[in-house]
Amino acid sequence: MAGMNEQMAAAALSALGHEARLGIFRLLVRAGRDGLNIGDIGRLCGLPPSTLAHHLGTLVEAGLVLQERDGREVINRADYAAVRGVFEFVEAECCIGVGLNRGDAA
User: Fold this and answer.
1) Could you tell me the pTM of the whole model?
2) Following DSSP, what letter does each residue of 24-92 receive, concatenated?
3) What is the pLDDT of residues 68-101, one digit of tens each?
């Protein structure tokens, strides 16, 4: 996710913040570069087609899953570079310190 910003990182983390989407994403990570077609994801996750389509759409929109048409199938793959980008963004300013004024404290 080149040019990562807070809005993009929040969308990606929000997408992973749902149990079903996290499960789908982890399944795609386990599948590796070959990915999985939609039917296999649904069968392995036990999700009905409409629910699966909704969750996959959210993961694709968040930039975490890539889809590629292969004939009549749609192959889904985890976008490893995007996930690394999200965590690099979150970690980018690790331990650089924060200057607080008395009035800033919560």
Assistant:
1) 0.84
2) HHHHHHHHGGG-EEHHHHHHHHT--HHHHHHHHHHHHHTTSEEEEEETTEEEEEE-HHHHHHHHHHHHT
3) 998 999 999 999 999 999 999 999 888 888 877 7
Query: Is residue 96, in this structure, part of any structural domain at all?
Result: no
Query: Would you state the pLDDT for residue 18?
Result: 97
Q: What one-character-per-residue DSSP string does 11-22 give?
A: HHHHHHTSHHHH
> What's the sign of the alpha-carbon dihedral 80, 56, 12, 22?
negative
Query: Which CATH number goes with the domain that contains 74?
Result: 1.10.10.10
Type of residue at 43: R
Q: What is the pLDDT of residue 94?
A: 85
Q: Do 67 and 60 contact (CB within 8 A), yes or no?
A: yes
User: Is 102 part of a structural domain of the chain?
Assistant: no
Q: CA-CA distance, 17 to 53, in Å (whole number)? A: 17
> Residue 104: inside a domain, yes or no?
no
> CB atoms < 10 A from the CB of 57, how many?
13
